[in-house]
Amino acid sequence: MQKLINKDGSVENHWTVLKTATGPEILQVVPGKNFIVPLTFWKLYRQQLDDYSGNIALWLESDEQVDQIGEALHSLPLVALNFPVFSDGRSYTNARELRQRHGYKGEIRAIGDVLRDQLYYMAQCGFDTFELRHDQDIEVCMDAFRDFKTGYQSTISEPTPLFRRR
Amino acid sequence: MYRYDNYDHQMLADRVAQFRDQTDRYLAGKLSEAEFLPLRLQNGLYVQRLAPMMRIAVPYGMLSSAQLRKLAYITNHYDKGYAHFTTRQNIQINWPNLTEVPDILADLADVEMHAVQTSGNCIRNTTTDQFAGVAVDELEDSRAYCEIIRQWSTFHPEFAYLPRKFKIAVCGTEIDQAATQVHDIGIYLIKDANGEVGFRILAGGGLGRTPVIGQEIFDFVEKKHLLTALEAILRVYNREGRRDNKYKARIKILVKETGVEDFRKKVFKEWELIKDSALTLTIDEITRCQKFFDDPDYQKLKNSPPQLLENLQKDLLFAAWHTQNVKPHKKPGYAIVTVCFKETGVAPGDVTDRQLEQIADLADQYSFGEVRISHHQNIVMADVRQDQLYELWRQLKNGAMSSHNLGLLTDVICCPGGDFCALANAKSIPIAESIQRKFSDLEELTNIGEMNINISGCMNACGHHHVGNIGILGVDKKGEEYYQVSLGGSSKNNASLGKIIGPSFAQEEIPGVVEKIVEVYKAKRQKDEKFIDTFNRIGLEPFKETVYAKAD
Fold first, then answer.
1. Engineered SS bond to B457: which of A78, B155, B404, B428, CB 3.0-4.6 Å?
2. What pLDDT is stored for residue B472 in this prediction?
3. Cα–Cα distance for residue pair B64/B66, rounded to 1 Å
């Protein structure tokens, strides 16, 4: 299991991310698990997923958009957003869209190239949990949430911008 | 000017500590080159041909004398004793040590300065007219809005990893001095039919490889919606801007490929969602920011005091400088002075630590302790008493800062080029110098009149060659440095992009080519016609014929 943290520390990782190349047979082979499946998988195998004995969440690639999930979004316990490389900033906007436009209340998880120096901004944009890249040190990463005491903007974690607070 | 409160200070202190930790981890081998890259860029640090280059942010060009003195100290203590004004109102030093950069940032923070987001794929320093607040043709002082945008864009968590860099300019004057239309977002202060002041917002302008004039996204936005409108544009760009090709990643390509109609629809869809959210500006906040730019304690004075008229009569050099470098001020008895840093033999925009200190002293003495950097790489003293102009000029003369070629052919805009920059195809500073040497006669320069030359050492266009009346671009021709010349560019209200005249030239040919262009203009101009107007009337052909004519 990959290392998972939230703002308060290390948390147990109950979910497994399925890669895009995975076929539907896995649902037969490995019953009763918690899978985060790719959007395409989720669209193609809805019936099998509905019948699955474990829990299902889904993840979006950075070039996929939240609108593509549709109505079923609110029944999902978790949506993961991928960072194919840490410098691809699209998932920040996707996280905000999930919260702001769609009012999504479930867990938003950062997956992929998730590194210490981006965690603070991710947390501001609505991410709750962070599945760290294998080489990341949890203790070093925990410092990230204290990088700044406050910011100027209206964000998901602090919707009131500084100019309304100062 | 804007002063930090505890919040601003705290954020900057946090940032300095953050970058110190990042630098430590990088030097200890715990952070890879690729992972450190965007972090150092967003703190102003490039690695260049000879050494790192550090770009220090000067928000919309404003500097206090205390900040100038700190910059002089940094230039002297950490660098080689000179700095460089950039075309986006910032300042660069060319020789800092990586290990000392966190210390430089801490020194800067002491005087409410930083190097945040001066580089990298994020929102850069917001620029404006260097005469903001004192110009005669101003609708409203643009600096309060620049400051509001500065705060919104600084450490914006959603927009730190955009497809590419992002530049915003604001213009509050009738005559656009901020090159507003060639920015990723260009903002004009305008009045609607009811006389209410708001914003007209363009997007998708830019120079670089594909020069484009921005297109209108919002024809009129109320003041309170400024930030929500910007956030909506940025959100569409962050999500949909191309990331597959660095050269197609700017917003101008997205606007072009999407089509402005569809792009506008997408922006409005985002805007509807946040338009009346907490991000809507309050009157209190606008007023708070405006207060920082209130008029200084102007004296009640009259225009054209007798001492001035007398000195203009008796000192011709002073008179020449006064004609070129002094502009009218909104208050009677005051004037706007531009100190031109285009002395022949000195790289355009270069300034020594000693000069920075002198400017600080002169600003304290003559201009309420503040100056502005212009995007023409010069320094503006915005509030000088007309009866003190002569004194000021004499002191500038002693400091070799009395060049009176402002706005003339030798007031060249020029990037650092191949002498310093790792991206350049060709040198640009020696080209500027060879032109300045060719046109050393002030009478002749004055006779030629307003005409600007912009030089870029490569297609990235830091010297804004596309909008130069004469644009010169360094190109690589089979390993040799060559120069492509274009004519008719302008960054003013009727912004236009220059047209390439023909095959490129060798370095030594350039002064002669410029001379021929000037000759054609002088022969064809009607009365007081400016070069750009003559060019627009007669077109490229006459210039082309003369420049490429075979010698008999």
1. B428
2. 96
3. 5
Q: How far is A88 from chain B, CA to nearest CA, in Å?
A: 6
Residue B117 neighbours by CB under 8 Å, 6+ apart: B42, B57, B123, B124, B125, B153, B154
Kindly report, residue by residue over B397-413, the tens digit of the pLDDT: 988 888 888 888 998 99
B276 touches chain A (CB under 8 A): no
Question: How far does chain B reach from its first CA to its final CA, in angstroms?
Answer: 61
Nearest to B155 among A125, A152, A166 (CB): A152
Evaluate the CA torsion angle B169, B171, B176, B181 in order and state its sign: positive
Task: Judge whether residue B280 has pLDDT over 80.
Answer: yes
Q: What angle do CA A81, A84, A85 make, to 5 degrees?
A: 120
Instruction: Select the residue of B14, B278, B284 nearest A154 (Cβ to Cβ).
Output: B278
SS3 call for B415? coil
Interface check B155 vs A, CB under 8 A: yes
Q: Give this prediction's pTM.
A: 0.91
Average predicted confidence (pLDDT) for chain B: 93
Predicted interface score ipTM higher than 0.85 = yes
Q: According to the model, what pLDDT value does residue B551 have?
A: 59
Report yes or no: B294 at the A interface, CB cutoff 8 Å: no
Whole-angstrom distance, CA of residue B359 vs CA of residue A90: 44
Question: Over the stretch A140-157, which tens digit does the pLDDT of each residue have?
Answer: 999 999 999 999 999 999
Smallest CA–CA distance, residue B102 to chain A, in Å, is 16
Contact B152 A87 (CB under 8 A): no
Closest among B342, B163, B455, B310 to A62, alpha carbons compared: B163
